[in-house]
Amino acid sequence: MTADTIPADTVVNVPDAPGKRSSLGNILTITKREVSGYFASPVAYVFIVIFLLLAGFFTFMVSDFFDRGQASLVMFFAWHPWLYLFLVPAVGMRMWSEERRLGTIELLLTMPVTPWQAIVGKFLASWIVLILALALTFPLVITVNYLGNPDNGIIVAGYVGSVLLSGAYLSIAAMTSAMTRNQVVSFILSVVLCLFLILAGWPPVTDLLVHWANPWFVQAISAFSVMAHFDAIQKGVLDSRDLLYFISVIVFCLFTTSVILRTHRAG
Amino acid sequence: MIEVQNLTKAFGAKLAVNDISFTVQRGQVLGFLGPNGAGKTTTMRMITGFIPPTAGDVVVGGFNIERDPIAAKRLIGYLPENAPSYTDMTVRGFLNFAAELRGFRGAEKTRAVERVVEMCFLGSVLHQSVETLSKGFRHRTCFAQSIIHDPAVLILDEPTDGLDPNQKHEVRTLIRQMGEKKAIIFSTHILEEVEAVCSRAIIIDSGKIVANGTPAELKQKSTLAGAVTVRFANGDPASMKSKLSALSSGERLTILSEAPTAARIYPKNNGARGELAAEIGQLAARENWQIEELHTEEGRLDEVFRTITLPETAPRKS
Ligand SMILES: Nc1ncnc2c1ncn2[C@@H]1O[C@H](COP(=O)(O)OP(=O)(O)OP(=O)(O)O)[C@@H](O)[C@H]1O
Ligand SMILES: [Mg+2]
User: Fold this and answer.
1) pLDDT class for A43, splitting at 50, 70, 90?
2) 3-state SS of A70-89?
3) What is the model's pLDDT at position A11?
4) Could you tell me which residues come within 8 angstroms of residue B274 by beta carbon, excluding any fewer than 6 positions away?
5) Which strands form B250-257's sheet, in the order they lie side by side?
6) What are phi and psi of B159, to 5 degrees?
7) In this structure, which of A21, A89, A121, B293 has its CB flanked by the most CB atoms within 10 Å?
């Protein structure tokens, strides 16, 4: 038999004729598996419960939600960069490290899927879990609308910002989880990286920095921070530059993930 | 179907696979043998596109695994070493997932899953989580995944590892049957398996092919091949010994036991097959020795394997 022809009987039972398998189909299959993986273990439930408890605690106990006499969710969203700092890496740490530990990465990447489909599929699954937890805070929206007359446009922007923020953190967690088969190492690395993204633009730190560094340098650094972009969106302005920032972080980190995975496979 | 050309893989300075070339046609089952760390798994990982080769090419069904990975991977079914699977899924969930990635939907998917469940005897654990399966069942689940799309090319890394004797037998039978229509490569440390299943075997050692042939050809390389073992019921050991060692087509004699005498006579290198046995028969008839057993040795794969992969101990053994 010559190498470049496949006899007709080869394809009898193989429905993957080109075109029939869309890359979206592969991504969705992987996303579905990952989401069910989260809910098969306690990870997703534990995360959702802790997220809701902490969000409630910070909003009501620490920030005096009721005493401020304002109908808005500003105090709720203000805590998200800190809340996500630990919770998002906890959700994302298993993404690739578990795959490497179990050896299933060898199965996944020898299936007829591209590494990108796998990376995006897994990322979306974790993001869905995060978004689901966030969606479960809807009683807050109902409450403020019941108590007063909030600007619901700002609330929607707040949710959009929060979703983008969790996506950015999650892409960092995806990247660090590709570096190691150890989930704990992956967790710590991503917390450190996310913390850097917060601190670079956090007023107490930038105020300190201006005393000994060039102001434009401080500005350049803080442009990399999630804080300025997150705050801008929280004010209700969906500026394309802020959206672009979050999308760039996600794309960059997922691209780095693919590079890390490829480097690792090359040995 | 599978063409491997000058395949090389270096991990740092270490050459795990060193310039390996071979082809496997449809209808062939290639056994992959070699000591631990020889490079079998590394070779298979390169063929299936999991790791990129340092040099060389792999072409599967006409598709280069590096330039056209998706098309090549569609043709391949792969059982990785240690049979990994998602432990948080049920067997059915796992097989459904594999079937979906292979492009099956709806009723087609159900049929594909049912087919492999039956072939791999997974019916009793279908709804059990993979985590709680015994090792053998886990292995079979992963094996089932590899044949779910009835692939034209099957790469199996130690497919019978951890299976009970019945299941080993089933899997061998399956491989032999599937080998009639597919191109199969499988690695193993069980040499009987090679004789039972393979149409060809390759022995690799330190990343290089050191032997390549049919199991019968490989056995011919054994020092034992062609030797005649004979056992007599009567006769005087001393005279037997001298007369047997004087045979014209015999090279060397080992006494296996005395009174009753059993001996193994090795043929001269140029002797025709059967010549030595015939000569012993004639001698016994002349001397009135009663033969209880006489047979020509086929040669043994394990001996060949040892001789080839442990060169430094080979002289002492023969
Ligand atoms: N990712 C890696 N990085 C560095 N060295 C590696 C890597 N993978 C394999 N090796 C080395 O390559 C060599 C070949 O390993 P391989 O797993 O292919 O052996 P094998 O023939 O499958 O052995 P076994 O019979 O034990 O399964 C070994 O020396 C191994 O240590
Ligand atoms: Mg191996």
Assistant:
1) confident
2) CCCCHHHHHCHHHHHHHHHH
3) 41
4) B296
5) B250-257, B262-267, B228-232, B291-296
6) -70, -20
7) A89
8 A C-beta contact, residue B206 and residue B255: no
What ipTM was assigned to the predicted interfaces of this complex?
A: 0.84
A242-266: string of b/e by CB count within 10 Å (b at 16+)? beebbeebbeebbebbbebbeebbe
- Structure-block tokens of residue A65: 């939600």
Query: From atom 4 of ligand 1, which residue's Cα is the shortest distance away?
Result: B11
Q: What is the mean pLDDT of residues B24-52?
A: 93
In the predicted structure, residue A116 carries a pLDDT above the cut 60 = yes
Residue from the list B3, B52, B69 with its beta carbon closest to the beta carbon of A266: B52
Cβ-in-10-Å burial (0-12, 13-18, 19+) of B268 comes to middle
Indicate whether A210 pLDDT > 50. Answer: yes
Residue of B nearest to A21 (CA): B103
Give tens-digit pLDDT for A171-185: 999 999 999 989 999
Contact B72, B65 (CB under 8 A): yes
Chain A: nearest CA to B218, how far in angstroms?
25
Angstrom distance (rounded) from CA A261 to CA A182? 15
Model pLDDT for residues A132-149, shown as the tens digit of each residue: 999 999 888 888 888 888
Asked if pLDDT for residue A8 goes beyond 80, the answer is: no
Residue A19 near chain B (CB below 8 Å): no
3-state secondary structure of A260: helix
User: What is the number of H-type helices and E-type strands within chain A?
Assistant: 14, 0
Domains of chain B plus CATH, in order, are 2-219 (3.40.50.300), 228-297 (3.30.70)
Q: Do B80 and A110 touch (CB under 8 A)?
A: yes
